């Protein structure tokens, strides 16, 4: 009977076990450590974005010119407004989350239920906004021509607004002269069975060139950023020459391969970083829904502690925290 | 369960009666900061768009000086303001929404210092390397050709 030592004589002493030097439960502490590692993942992405941007610092797209759309306000250039709205929604849902945690401390089931519900709604609005933002980005607005070297040439004209000369972008739809032509799309059934062609761009480069030649007001803008922090606009002769000799592909919108806004890396990082963040928000919403139903069913009421709300709350705040950085480094800086 | 909250922010300048009130106070502050960022981002005041001092030139000590002063020598003041305001926001989200203010010092340091140290390291390495690759691409004897 005495072959196993049941008592070490250290009970109640420092090394006797059962201590909680951090005064936090196991679950909460692990959530914190998960957050640290996830924060490192996100900073890896953002630092990689910074790396690529520093590499192409003279030709990186200007975010203000890319994200200018707001739902229901067509044709208006409102940079930042919608992203600011999204930021506010996410901070707001963080507030309802922390209010739910606070109500949980007071064992107030009705209030926890209400605030969890509002948090879920906020998360859904954010994910929906994100989807809209992606759709707008993918669809594109002005279109551009990609050169043999992979650079993007955009179009526009000088207009005078309030006595100041400004470069105003023009959509390729407005000036391209569409010509009759037959270009069968390569499909699996009419060509090589093991390759398929992606959908064709809306215009060919020669159609764009004809439109450019016919409209003497239109100029080409390159991606290079000049002294004033604006993209360089080419002269009329240079514009025609570049499109004729150097134009390779008409680009409308953005995907992982081409990007009408500038270097394709910009689109890649946009999809990757906001996508990874959006996935976090999505899983946060799923976790919140699970917790919400547990609250409604009274699981935590019976358990005598709403700590689960607190743990999922930590995750939710972290998602908000990441967005604050994504907002700064993708949209502001 | 005891849940004591520290009910003051800005080092005691702003005290709250209850935790709920503190949450709304922090929300007001965060919204205010975001509003400043958005207004600056839309209007981009001319004075903030160029660095105020040029990089120091000279020998070894000028280089050391540039490294120490790099946020104001190489960064536009506007971007510096954005980054500082972001860190301010991150602080209040972590401290008040995630209740880091109420955790014990050891937990706080484990989480914050680890992350801050590793992130600074990572960012330094990658940005440094990015700047180097830029200089290689754009050197006079660069081996890449350009359309224009």
From TrEMBL, chain A:
Entry keywords, A to Z = Cell membrane, Membrane, Transmembrane, Transmembrane helix
Pfam families noted in UniProt: COX3
Instruction: Write down the InterPro entries for this protein, in alphabetical order.
Output: Cyt_c/ubiquinol_Oxase_su3, Cyt_c_oxidase-like_su3, Cyt_c_oxidase_su3-like_sf, Cyt_c_oxidase_su3_a-hlx
As for subcellular location, the record says:
Cell membrane
What SUPFAM superfamilies is this protein classified in? Answer: Cytochrome c oxidase subunit III-like (SSF81452)
Q: Tell me the membrane topology, using the record's own terms.
A: Multi-pass membrane protein
Q: Can you tell which superkingdom this protein's organism belongs to? A: Bacteria
Q: Where are the transmembrane segments?
A: 30-51, 80-100, 112-132, 269-300, 312-332
Give all residue intervals belonging to the Heme-copper oxidase subunit III family profile domain. Answer: 1-333
Annotated PANTHER family: CYTOCHROME BO(3) UBIQUINOL OXIDASE SUBUNIT 3, CYTOCHROME C OXIDASE SUBUNIT III
User: What family is this?
Assistant: Belongs to the cytochrome c oxidase subunit 3 family.
Protein name as annotated: Cytochrome c oxidase subunit 3
According to its UniProt entry, this protein's organism is Winogradskyella poriferorum
TrEMBL record, chain B:
Q: What Pfam families does the record tag this protein with? A: COX4_pro (PF03626)
Q: What is its main location?
A: membrane
Q: Per UniProt, which keywords does this protein have? A: Cell membrane, Membrane, Transmembrane, Transmembrane helix
Q: Where in the cell does this protein reside? A: Cell membrane
- Which residues span the membrane? 23-43, 55-74, 110-127
The membrane-topology field of this record reads: Multi-pass membrane protein
Q: What is the top-level taxon of the source organism?
A: Bacteria
Name of the protein this chain belongs to: Cytochrome C oxidase subunit IV family protein
